Hints:
The structure holds 2 protein chains of 2 kinds.
Chain A: H1 2-22, H2 30-39, E1 41-42, H3 48-52, E2 55-56, E3 60-65, H4 71-83, E4 88-92, H5 100-105, E5 113-116, H6 121-133, E6 137-143, H7 161-166, E7 171-176, E8 187-198, E9 201-210, E10 216-222, E11 228-233, H8 235-242
Parallel strand pairs in A: 3-7, 3-8, 4-5, 4-6, 6-7
Antiparallel strand pairs in A: 1-2, 8-9, 9-10, 10-11
Chain B: E1 4-9, H1 15-28, E2 31-36, E3 39-43, H2 48-51, H3 54-68, E4 72-77, H4 80-88, E5 95-97, H5 102-106, H6 118-126, H7 132-136, H8 140-147, H9 149-158, E6 175-185, H10 188-209, E7 211-222, E8 228-238, H11 241-253, E9 261-273, H12 286-303, E10 308-313, E11 325-329
Amino acid sequence: MAASxxxxxxxxxxxxxxGRRFGTRAMLRGDAAERQASERRFLTGTSxxxxxxxxxxxxxxxxxxxxxxxxxxLALRAVAGAQCEGGHALWLDPTGSLDAGAADxxxxxxERLIVVRARARxxxxxxxxxxxxxxxxxxxxxxxxxALAPAEVTADQLAPLVPLVRGSTAALLVIADxxxxxxxxxxxxxERVAWQRRFExxxxxxxxxxxxxxxxxxxxxxxxxxxxxDSGLGPERAEGLAS
Amino acid sequence: xxxxxxxxxxxxxxxxVVASSLTALCAMLPRVGVLDRGVFACDLRGTRSLLGEPxxxxxxxxxxxxxxxxxxxxxxxxxxxxxxxxxxxxxLGEVHEAGADERAYLAPLPVAILPLAADVVEELALLGLRSxxxxxxxxxxxxxxxxxxxxxxxxxxxxxxxxxxxxxxxPRRRIRARRRWDDPILSKExxxxxxxxxxxxxxRSLAADGMAALRLGLALEREATPPLRLxxxxxxxxxxxxxLLRSLRWALEEWRxxxxxxxxxxxxxxxxxxxxxxxxxxxxxxxxxxxxxxxxQHLRTRLGEGAVLRARVxxxxxxxxxxxxxxxxVVA
Lengths: 243, 332
């Protein structure tokens, strides 16, 4: 019994020394690793969390869908979720299209959102790489623009960031119009389900978020991010909304 | 009882000799302060049992400075000002003491030895006050009323009421760590990983001295290319190895290619006393904020003005979306 306690103390000491030497959480016991893996996730506060289990730090993720399909609306909620734990977020906005008002309405703390308007592909990749190497960020978002106003960088060209995100304290979220052809990222497909009209004008749309053939999370977004409603999880809801 | 020895080096001593004399004195005595170029105050309190009587210490100081390359004079008194006056008025290579009655020692000396403005000395001379003793005999309140605070302070010195203590200096020590690697390092990530050990070593040395690094110098030895020298300023100054390494990371980010690195020398080029860091009570995470701002600073340097921004909502009800918010630089 005494020997077991002594060996446990030795092990604890060794883990602590490795932590001091190579950074906290460099080595963990299995139970602590499992617990901390959940702690390293942050939530968007929507049905997307039930679909994807939140967004995990140190992992890449892609939101893919055509224009006005709700990618930015959900990405802004992801930023707000990332900031809940006190970190900053970096938004790479090569097309200069980020709507600060919509971000504010989505609950983003604009003080803690660093927006980088680098246009050149090389600058975008290097800025994102610097962000992923930094310890001060929880989320790095790269918005590659839409078909009407594309950025110089495409999702496929972000491949150099994938090895960097593995050891990062931040998650990488790529927003793209098309699924990357040569880059395998966990991708969530955004599809517009129906336009919403009010007084003969378009006032918003409903959209679904899904991965593969699994359940879809359904949302309703107002123009300019003025409203956002979460309709829950399930394909039948999408069909209902479409009809 | 205070015992202070003021050491005045020969006026012709070079900067190198002055520095080596100071280093030798710091190694010999517990507290040495710098009064002027080539003038040092040594606090001899508590040294009697270890080093002997003050005049013996004075003779050892003479020998030490001679070995360092310059003759000097040593004045000993209970107050720093009196000891300096004694040293100033003694010939090179001698040790003199002010004696038991320091006020009596100062009394016959000209009033110009006191730290007084020239016009005050002239006015005192017109009043017939030419010696320190005559000036010291004036009433304190009268001096203050007529000549002001500076003259009142000089009046206290004339009476031997010098309360100044010796502010000891910490002799500069090179805080440096070196590493050489058998296999060349090719990537920044590998280099940063390898530099952790040197950053830890520097941090330990800094912590042992109670100092924080203000400037870091990194020299990278490379195969087939000249050494690369980088320098970083750390604000706030720190002895935290993670912060040192972070700063090095940003320095390396500036370089696209580092070449084949076979050795590194890291030095805390400039240090200052370590101070605690005040965190805001409700600040979510001060360290993360600093790191994020360092990133913003780095990106702004790379991308230029107008590229690293922060939004601010100015009119949530604006009719036009573009008037809703304004954009400011994160780091001006």
